[in-house]
C-alpha cells in the first residue's frame, strides 16, 4: 500500500505566506484517496517527524520567492528539492523543512518520493486572504498535487537518494 502525505506550509495570517495552507485546504475538500494524508504543517518543525516517517511520498506546498511573477507555481522533486532546501533561498520555512528532511534522512525515514510545490508570493503582509495572483494560482497547485500523486501511484517507487 502506498502512503502519501500532502503538507501545506505557512502562516495563513500573513496573506501569501499562507499559500501552502490554502492549497491543502482546497485539496483536502476533493481528496478521497485513503492513502493520502493531508497535513497542516504550519511553519514546520521537527514535531512533524512522526507524521512523515516511512511515507512512500511527501508533497510540501509553500510560498517560495524565486524572483518569478507573483502566482507562478514551481515544482521541484527528489534531489532537486533537496538542493532547493539546502540553498535556503526561497521560503522563510525552507530552513525548518530542510531540518525536517535531514532528520528523516538521518533516521532512514526519508520518503523516496518527495516534491516541493512553491507559489511565488506577491505580498506577505497581515491579512487572512491571499492576494489575487496567489488566489488564482491555488487551483493550479492542486492540479500539480494530483498529477504528482497519479504519477507516483502508477510508476514504480523511486529509489531513496540521500
How would you describe the overall organization of this protein?
The chain has 162 residues and is α/β, with parallel strands linked by helices. The protein has one domain (4-154): HybD-like (Rossmann fold). Helices cover 38% and strands 18% of the residues. It has five helices and five strands. It has helices spanning 19-30, 49-52, 78-87, 94-106, 132-154; strands at 4-8, 36-40, 57-63, 73-77, 113-119. It has a five-stranded mixed β-sheet with strand order 2-1-3-5-4, with helices on both faces. The protein is globular and about 40 Å long. It starts with a strand and ends in an 8-residue tail after the last helix. The mean pLDDT is 86.
As a percent range, the share of strand residues is 15-25%
Uncertain stretches = none
Shape: globular
Radius of gyration: 14 Å
CATH class: Alpha Beta
The H-and-E topology, N to C, reads as EHEHEEHHEH
Count up the domains: 1
The second-level CATH architecture is 3-Layer(aba) Sandwich
